[in-house]
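testing teh design pipeline on a random one, pls ignore if ur not involved
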């Protein structure tokens, strides 16, 4: 089992040696999507990043329970417990039952992540499936003196909590500044404090999604669901809690407060956050008109895109940046990633065609060790990719007859590529999976071979140049003819 892994902990703002609470078992909770609309690319980056983490922890020998929730209730339009429930609002617009909306967008979310070849979580609980657990947690928080009920709505008392705990431990913000920058409570606002937030919200007469509770008919607040579900499946204390960096200031801050107010324990040992996406240097957002849906990237239908890019190209592009770094989308960057990904896959496909020699000009173990070292350094995927391209150079050199590799080193090379390209990164070769294309190209290459044997070089060159114009390059060697996309 890997024991040298260091994670960047948002809670302490430094890298720390990973020591799971119940070694070798690891509990990981990641805030999943709110399924009232199509999943956006920012969400995809978060889930691809945590899929990488999940895969590497499993690869390193840990038994991982990966919990990723589905938010299907309690997410209001406003940040101050105001406005309509987003699911109910979308249901009214589309004239559907709220659970039809949930089902529609949950299935769409799963379809997108399958295209990115991510592993499913161990457990994927829903907010609506855990109303009882949320109510019980709220009752305990009230019992401990950190919440109060007014007219059927229960609020968390932030200032009371802050007398004993550090409410801003995750973001290191100054509580006094937060209070000063929060607007005064209006005469109609029933909260005791400016920063107080709802744990349970009284249902309006027109509210569709509602449940009975000790405080009347209502529905849970957004934050309480994650605290309740993480505690149910991972316990009051677990190893990793993750999500996008946009969740840290409010959602994750309130999660910590709720969990500590209930159990008097800090819920997660490590907090991890993925960084934002930008487009040509500008933050990606729907309001700016530069927010991509995955489908728009695949088809090229977004006005900012010159063409579409395959799911594996997009995934490879995401993995080329560290999960804590800002990632900037541009047509040029995606073009470069596509070429890099094809070069990587072409080299992988050449591995089985290499013939080992008695002696070796290359040692693979240092490359393998560098990949492990990079992943142990807070999952540094860009460094791993750089090492993999050193392996690509070796593969191409041997294939071109300009270097030798022994059978032992060749097996190490195959293990390196299989372990990190497929098992850890979760990439797959989209071209070789197209059996029809492979069959057609095999036939064309065989026809060209016959033409060359008959010294019909005009036909041979016509086939080679024709395929090249379609983006397919043929490469002749003593072992036969191979092809790759260019």
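output:
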């Amino acid at each position: 089992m890997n024991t040298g892994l260091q994670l960047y902990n948002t809670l302490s703002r430094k890298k720390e040696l990973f020591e799971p609470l119940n070694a070798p078992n690891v509990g990981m909770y990641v805030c999943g999507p709110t399924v009232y609309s199509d999943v956006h690319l920012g969400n995809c980056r978060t889930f691809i990043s945590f899929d990488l983490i999940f895969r590497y922890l499993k690869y390193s020998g840990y038994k991982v329970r990966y919990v990723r929730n589905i938010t299907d209730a309690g997410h209001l339009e406003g940040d101050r417990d105001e406005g309509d429930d987003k699911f109910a609002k979308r249901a009214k617009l589309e004239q559907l039952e709220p659970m039809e909306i949930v089902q529609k967008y949950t299935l769409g979310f799963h379809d997108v992540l399958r295209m990115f070849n991510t592993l499913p979580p161990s457990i994927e609980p829903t907010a609506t499936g855990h109303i009882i657990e949320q109510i019980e947690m709220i009752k305990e928080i009230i019992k401990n003196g950190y919440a109060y009920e007014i007219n059927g709505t229960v609020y968390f008392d932030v200032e009371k909590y802050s007398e004993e705990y550090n409410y801003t431990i995750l973001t290191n913000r100054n509580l006094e500044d937060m209070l000063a920058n929060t607007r005064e409570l209006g005469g109609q606002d029933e909260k005791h404090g400016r920063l107080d937030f709802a744990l349970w919200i009284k249902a309006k007469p027109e509210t569709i999604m509602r449940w009975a509770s000790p405080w009347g008919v209502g529905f849970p607040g957004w934050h309480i669901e994650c605290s309740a579900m993480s505690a149910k499946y991972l316990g009051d204390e677990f190893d990793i809690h993750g999500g996008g960096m946009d969740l840290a200031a409010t959602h994750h801050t309130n999660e910590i407060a709720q969990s500590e107010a209930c159990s008097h324990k800090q819920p997660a040992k490590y907090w991890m956050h993925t960084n934002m996406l930008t487009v040509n240097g500008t933050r990606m957002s729907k309001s700016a008109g530069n927010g991509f849906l995955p489908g728009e990237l695949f088809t090229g239908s977004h006005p900012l895109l010159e063409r579409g890019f395959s799911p594996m190209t997009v995934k490879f592009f995401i993995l080329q940046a560290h999960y804590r770094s800002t990632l900037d989308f541009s047509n040029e960057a995606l073009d470069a990633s596509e070429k890099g990904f094809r070069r990587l896959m072409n080299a992988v496909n050449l591995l089985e065609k290499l013939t080992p020699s008695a002696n070796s000009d290359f040692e693979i173990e240092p490359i393998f060790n560098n990949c492990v070292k990079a992943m142990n350094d807070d999952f540094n995927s860009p460094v791993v990719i750089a090492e993999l391209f050193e392996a690509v150079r070796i593969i191409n050199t041997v294939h071109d007859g300009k270097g030798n590799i022994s059978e032992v080193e060749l097996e190490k090379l195959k293990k390196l590529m299989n372990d990190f390209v497929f098992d850890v990164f979760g990439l797959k070769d989209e071209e070789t999976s197209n059996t029809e294309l492979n069959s057609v190209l095999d036939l064309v290459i065989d026809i060209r071979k016959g033409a060359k044997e008959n010294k019909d070089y005009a036909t041979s060159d016509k086939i080679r140049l024709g395929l090249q114009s379609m983006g397919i390059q043929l490469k002749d060697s003593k072992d036969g003819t191979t092809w790759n996309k260019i």
